[in-house]
Amino acid sequence: MEVKKHGGARPNSGRLKKDEVLSLIETMDAITVPENVWRALYQKVLENDVNAIKLWLSYRFGMPKQTIDNNVSVSSFDITKLYDTETSEALE
Q1: Looking at residue 73, what is its pLDDT?
Q2: Does residue 20 contact residue 35 with C-beta atoms inside 8 Å?
Q3: How far is residue 69's CA from residue 19's CA, in Å, rounded to a whole number?
Q4: From CA 16, how far away is CA 74, in angstroms rounded?
Q5: DSSP 8-class letter at 32
């Protein structure tokens, strides 16, 4: 029987469980207090680091609303102009 290697459940895939997330947060907070991280991020913002500025703004103001333009216009064309009517060959 051939074993498929694509799709399906895999070890360590998917979201972390709530207790795993809380444990990770506690571990991170034990290394440094969140205020120090915010200060370090702000220092990068002051240094004009574009990624830091984007991150700062996304936390401060939220991600911009993404819009999709549903107004698509299709122009019609005359298909007979694609062929030479006298020779019935496609024009270049």
Answers
A1: 74
A2: no
A3: 41
A4: 46
A5: S
